[in-house]
Structure formats: C-alpha cells, structure tokens
Amino acid sequence: MNWSLSFEPLISWPLLVAVLAPLLLLALVGLWFRQRGSVFRFAALLALGAALINPVFLDEEREALKSVVAVVVDRSQSQDIGERTKQTDEALAGLQQRLARFKQFDVRVVEAGKSEAADERTETRLFTALEGAFRDVPPSRIGGAIMITDGEVHDAPAGPPDFAAPLHALITGNDHEKDRRIRFENAPRFGLVGKPLDMTYRVIATGNGAGQVDVRVSVNGEQVAVEQATIGQAMPLQVTIPGAGRNIIELAIDPEPGELTDTNNRAIALVDGIRENLRVLLVSGEPHAGERTWRNLLKSDASVDLVHFTILRPPEKQDGTPINELSLIAFPTRELFVERIKDFDLIIFDRYQHRDVLPILYYDYIAEYVEKGGALLIAAGPEYAGESSIARTPLMAALPAMPTGEVVDKAFYPRLTDLGQRHPVTRGLDGSATDPPHWSRWFRTIGVENPEGEVVMKGADNRPLLLLDRKGEGRVGMLLSDQGWLWARGYEGGGPHVQLYRRIAHWLMKEPELEEERLTAEGRGMMLEIRRQTMSDDPGSAQVITPSGKALIVKLEKSEPGVFLGSIETNEIGLYQVGNGNLTALAHVGPVNAPEFSDVISTENRLKAPAEATGGSVRRLAQPSTLGGPASGVTLPSIVPVRASGAAAGNDWIGLRTTDDSVLKAVSRVPLFGGFLGLGLLLLAMGSMWYREGR
To answer: CA separation (Å) from 223 to 186, 201, 576?
Structure first.
C-alpha cells in the first residue's frame, strides 16, 4: 500500500485565501490579546479551512516495472571460426537460464552480424544492434547489456556508450590463438592494358612475427608469379594488366600449422583495365559521299587514334605536272604496310580498288597481318565488283566472300538476320525491333558468293550485307554497301550509323564486351549475377564454386536474343568461380578484403574501454587449461541484481541494475472531511465556539 495525502479544495485557491485570510488574522489577534473564546474561534476556523481545503488520503496500487537487459549475440562470420559458435551457443543458453530466475529483468536477445545489408555482414556492429534494442526503453529502465562476441567489434565507441548502465562482454575464443594474413597496402583501381601496374602489399602474423613466406600472385584466376615476402614489411609488386574491363588480382599465402583460418590468407584487388588509344588506318580509294562518315565517326571516338589517307591522284593519272608543284602528300605505302603495319589495330579499305598504289606484294603483308591477329574491314562499293577489285589480289586469302561482279541498285531496308539478332554487333540496334525497321532505306548492294563467317545483316533480295569472320588469329569484316552515309545525313529519318559502325570497328579490334561467346559474373552486394552471351539457343546452366569450395548450379534464363542471365543470393564473402561450357569467369561477392576478416584474433581490448566506463567488465568465456594448452569449456559468471549506485562487477559475478520505475494500476480515495463525518466535525467546532461566546 502506498498512502499519500492530497488536497482537493472546494473553491479555487485565490478565493479560498481571500475568505480565510481575514478570519485567520482576527483569530490570531484574539489569541494574542487572550480574549475569551479565542481558542474555540481558532479551532472553528481550522475546521472550516479543512473542510474547504478538502484533504483526501490516496491509496495507490502500483506494479513495479522490469529492468530491460539486452543480450547481444555476435553471429558474424568470424564467429564461425574454431569453437566460437559452440561457445556462443552454450553461453547464450546459460545466460538465458540464469536471467530467467530474476523476475525483475526483461531480457531481450539480439543477434547481430547476419543482416540482409551487405555492409552489416562484413562488419561486426554490435553497438548498432544494442542501440536498436534500447530504442523504445527510457534510460531509467535500462538494466545493462551483455555481449557475447570474439571482441572484433567495428563500431565500438572510444568512450562510454549512450546509456547509463553496466556493459559486460563475454569473449569467445582463447588467448593462445595465432593467425597470419595478407593485405594490399596500395592497389590502384585503374591500369593500362599490357602495362605493368605498381602495387604494394604486406603479410602480417600474430605477434608481428618475422621470417619470409611465399606469396602466389594470380591474375583473373591464373597464377603469374610467386613472390618472396618478409613478414611485417610492405612489399612491392608489379602486375601486368591483361585485358580491358574488370581484372581480379589475387595474392595468396599458405596457412601455417595451428592457424585460426585461411580465409584471410588471400587478398583481392579489383583493377579496371583501360586500353590505350587504338590505332586505326583508314584508306579511302577515292573521294565519295560516305568517306566523311567513317572519318567523323573514328575521329569522334576518344579511344581511337586515326590515320586517314584518300587516294586523290592514282598512278595512271599522268598529266605532266612536276612532283614539286603538287600539293598532295605522297602515300607512304612502305612505312604503313611494311614497317609499321603491326602498330595498327585495324585497317579499313573504304571503296578501295587495286590501282598500283600498293605493290602487289603488300597485299600479302596485309593478309599475313590479319592471320597473326590483325583486323581488316572492307567497306565495299562498286569497285569491289569490278576488274580492279582487291579480291583479285593476294588479299583474297583474308576475305570472307568473293564478288560475283553484280551491283544491285535497288531500294531496300537493311535487316538483321537470325544470327544478327543474337550477335553483339547488331543485337538491339535502335530501330531494328519493327518490320520494316525504323530507319531509312539504302539503294545499293554488292553481290558476293559463298560467304564465310557470319552474315548478320541482309540487303536487297536477302543478299548478304554485313559479314563478320575470323581468319587465323585475326578478324575480317565486310560491309557490302556504300550507302551508310544516308543514315548519317538523316535521309528518311536516318539510322543508327554511329552505333553500327562503332560496334563493327570495336568487334574487329576484339573488344571483350562484343564477343559472341562470353561469360561474365559480378557481385552486387551479396548477390552473384551471371551474364552469358552466346549465339546458341540454350547455353545450359552455370556451375558456381563458392569460396568455401561448395558447388552450386544456377539456371540461366533468356533475357533477350543472345543474352542469358542468372543470379543467386550468397552468404559467403570472397571469390566465386563460374563456369559454363568451356568458359569460366571470376567474381568477388561482398566488400573487397572485408574488415570482418582483416583481424580474426579474439581480443578483450576493443571493448575494455566502453565496458569499464559503464562499470561493467570484459572476460573470456573459456578459461586456459592447467597444462597451458587451448581453453576448454565455458565458464559463466554469476548474475547479481544491483542498485544504481552499487558496484556492477566482481571476480566471478556481473551486476545488472534494477529500476524503481512502476506503473499505476488503481487509486483509492478517502476524503477526511467528506460526508456526515466532516459535517459533524464542522458543526461541533462551530457549536463549541457559539456556546463559549454565549456565556
């Protein structure tokens, strides 16, 4: 029972004072001068005042509130090492059993480290989880917090936490752990393809141990070198970037005996390869309407260095003009096609015909250039079907189709073939989805026979219009019309000439994104996304090997012609191997070199400062064995409820604070001057005063 006295005046306090003050003054004056009956008058005044003030006894029925205690359980990946998971489960079960004995505690168990958010999986954020557990709890009701963790907490405050209650940490693992890890010190995000990239790394061992260790260096899954590294020192590394786009540089060291985990024995760096400017030689056989289309396109491409020559004065034009009076530049045939031909990534013959500008032997050099990995594009015009066609030279060995001698002057809409709808060069061209396509017509097609390679576009009467072929290690393209300039000029609305021409040129120069058969994989958060480009109708499923060695099958679904996609949600951070047919790809899922595995040695140091600032404690769950070996078993401290001002930790016990807060359930009122009792007391006092005054 909680008794208290309350006043509930019958009239307002100002009016009450105005009435009683003069009467009280007169009563006090009477007492001062000892007038007869002054005591009775004073007693009657007190009775009147008490009746007007109306004192009431209150009996409150209250229910004591519980203190809120948070048990934060670390479920991050570093807790899966060794016996830590077992220790955590045993400690949690023991704490719940002991806390259940105390009815004054409201226990909230919060598990942290396995959130859907990728950043919370790669960092141990126990204090963020603790803040969420206490978000709806007033400070006076917080009894304390107990953390079960390996001590590698990445959001631990430098000072006391934001609550005035004891914080206790129970550390898993043992104090005899050892580990060795490797990390990148300096890893640029970009590098030039084919050029060495300078990087630095460091191997770190428990206790800053010395010595040397072999470091295996792999690029995109292939081992390229084995380096000797001194433990504890920053080591230089040079890696040659093999290709454009995403490259994965991996460093790996062998685990040492008794090491906690080999997960951090690998370090990953993602480097985007950038190709130096591609060198293109454009040779126009004569000035024509489409010449500038190729020139403007290639000049506007920031990744291309263009060398362009137009044959304005063929050798057969002999008009007697002295050479020193000509303003034309002599065509440096030997320099371009003999001495420096290997410097070019692509050679384009634009409406070119054999007119003795190039010696016949030079065509052999060009065919050999293609066979050894070069690229050649024939932008054909009527000359290709004539007597001076380059198809009648030794270059014919590199050409995908021979002319029939026919030039078809007929209006047509360039259309994609079935192969063209799947080929990366022509797939999804703007305007190709409708029939007829949403672009202008062309009016000339050069006839060819027995085309080789892939016909991806067709012209008038379904004749081949665009051929793409491989010759040896090189590639050849042939555009069998010189009407592409109509799209550039906007005739009948124009067409996607920039998109088409650029794709043709970059496919010939082996741009990875334009490969017909290509498998790529990428990690987005904790999702592994797989993309398969193919010319087939069904590439099958993808095989995935996780960082822990587990094999998975991912079904690939058709997204558009020639493109199949698949994805899978993962729970492991690291390097995934993806295969499909004879193609393989690597992808890193999760943050690179996640903080969760940067240091896996269990420690008491990170939580010591915030725990001691709240009066709490940090202690290990597993006590060392008497033989000095690894710890065994779990030793839990006793739990003691303490007052706010009492100590909260001892050698073998931890304290949790109780609260004085309560909630009001009911109130009983007993008026002192209410009813007949109050009326009788008032009448008695007034009657006594009247009786005394009457004598």
So the answer is: 20, 17, 16
